[in-house]
């Protein structure tokens, strides 16, 4: 059995990984005991001491919301689709378009966004979601395809995806240009974090729940979502990268947890000997992230460490007094490049928050800037986010602007 390289030494922040093919994303560490030993070592390191809350030059930004551009994707009743589940025509993006993933391909920006039809109850979470695809030459003005590219179908995943649908994608690449999508399967019973892959962004292969093979299926009974895989920057690409021989993924809400994988398809949460999954980031009373924290875009390896953008909910009773109750803003956290569960720093204030009308009107009127996509594109960084569970917005950071330093 092949053993992944690097288990006896940490890689450096910018060290490239071995070339992999999609057909053999398959380097595995033998034995559950080695995985358990690694988890115990990392959990011990995590709880050795608290990280200080601080801001600094490691953070991405500042981000600017371009005037006259937002929202970049809005609902439309003009798109119709034959649903294979009901054999009927549905206006699949009539109610809402939000919570996007993004990737640069062939010099263009592609956004995969969650779209809801108007079926079901009027409350949040009771419509059917599908994933649409839009493309842009400048990252600001988009043309979208008339039909979704990922949706509930009469396949092996229908039991997990119907009737709620497929939600909240995040996307990374592999070295061989395979696209790996994490998304939430919602059957209106238990949400499951799932994985799909594609070579062209149009045709997707579903691989099912990310944790289905971990601990004999134990995590299939748990609510999981929001998978942000660790990446490195390669030009305008964000490529999934290994640390200590493993791929890493931050996930979940109301605490952020972490999982590892040998192949980007099958994931195992890091748990201690009692089976409790390690929490690497949690809510803080008195701060903007006092109610919940949720993994945002794919994490990025930088010269200062691993930067994870996360979504934060504010508690009405114990939160930041200057923010509305249950408003969603964005925070940033810095983790150790050689030990991805070791928290080094986190932001004291949100780096993005609802300020515009389109961010505070829609299904979620408390206000939402829900970040799920951060990409480098032509020398700038583009942040795509969901607004009030209803539209897609964009904010841009130019690292070359005066008085702005790179992370």
Helix/strand layout:
Elements: H1 32-46, E1 52-53, E2 81-83, E3 88-90, E4 96-105, E5 108-116, E6 129-136, E7 143-144, H2 158-161, E8 165-173, E9 179-186, E10 191-198, E11 205-209, E12 228-229, E13 231-234, E14 237-240, E15 242-243, E16 246-251, E17 256-261, E18 267-269, E19 279-281, E20 292-295, E21 300-302, E22 305-313, E23 328-335, E24 343-346, E25 369-377, E26 380-387, E27 391-397
Parallel strand pairs: 1-24
Antiparallel strand pairs: 2-3, 4-5, 5-6, 6-7, 8-9, 9-10, 10-11, 12-16, 13-14, 15-16, 16-17, 17-18, 17-19, 20-22, 21-22, 22-23, 23-24, 25-26, 26-27
Distance between the termini: 39 Å
How much helical structure, as a percent, in the residues? Answer: under 10%
- Radius of gyration, rounded? 20 Å
Number of helices: 2
> Kindly state the mean pLDDT as a whole number?
87
Tell me the structural class.
mainly beta
